Amino acid sequence: MVGRIIQSLDCVAEGCAWLAAREPAFARALPLVGALPLRREPDGFAALLRAIVGQQVSVASARAIWARLEAAGLSDVAVMAAATDDDLRAAGLSRQKARYGRALAQAGIDFSALRDIPDKGVVATLTAVPGIGVWTAEIYAMFALGRADVFAPGDLALQEAARMLFDLQARPTEKALRAMAEAWSPWRSVAARILWAYYRVAREREGIM
């Protein structure tokens, strides 16, 4: 069963109100972080390829590589599936990411069908493709599919934000944060938005850019 889909800022606001009423830490954080973004993007091949491009590189580098891929038509699944190593290297992809991009293009994923698959099924389908880990699959479910109750506890910013907001002695592990986030269901995706925003505010206060 597919749960609630975040379709508008009203959905985000509803989730914020629910979380603030049940968790004092979120109630404290919300006035500090201001309005939260919707953070929705079109689903499909390009969204996942962009996530692969962004792995382990700066935001600026990821944008530059993505622009070259689009200019070369490589954001199209058929073009990527037929691309050579030289094509992909010329666009700025490493050998490993070139392999991942082609594997995704050749995987035959029915992206439209993913919209009607439960969260665990989405993650299982996507992580079967080389180069797509649980974090990438969860981010896709959150922002491309709009799932309201998906969390990405492997995200270091979420871990650090949770440490600061909940005054933990150490950054929680992925397993510990996943367990912690169960209390935030059915709005775990909104909880993630709050934590990411809180992380940004905390870094700015500390003078870390």
Q: How would you characterize the overall build of this protein?
A:
The protein has 209 residues and is mainly alpha-helical. It has two domains: 88 residues, Endonuclease Iii, domain 2 (Orthogonal Bundle), CATH 1.10.1670; 99 residues, Endonuclease III, domain 1. The chain has 13 helices and no strands. Helix 1 crosses helix 2, helix 3 runs antiparallel to helix 7 and helix 9 crosses helix 10. 34% of the residues are buried.
CATH topology call of the largest domain: Endonuclease III, domain 1
Total number of beta strands: 0
List low-confidence stretches. none
Please identify, by name, the CATH architecture of the largest domain: Orthogonal Bundle
Average pLDDT taken over every residue: 94
What sequence of helices (H) and strands (E) makes up the elements? HHHHHHHHHHHHH
Beta-strand residue percentage: under 5%
Rg to the nearest angstrom?
A: 18 Å
The helix tally amounts to 13
**Secondary structure: helix percent:** 55-70%
Can you tell me the overall shape?
globular
- Full CATH superfamily name of the largest domain: Hypothetical protein, domain 2
Structural class: mainly alpha
Measured distance between first and last alpha carbons: 41 Å
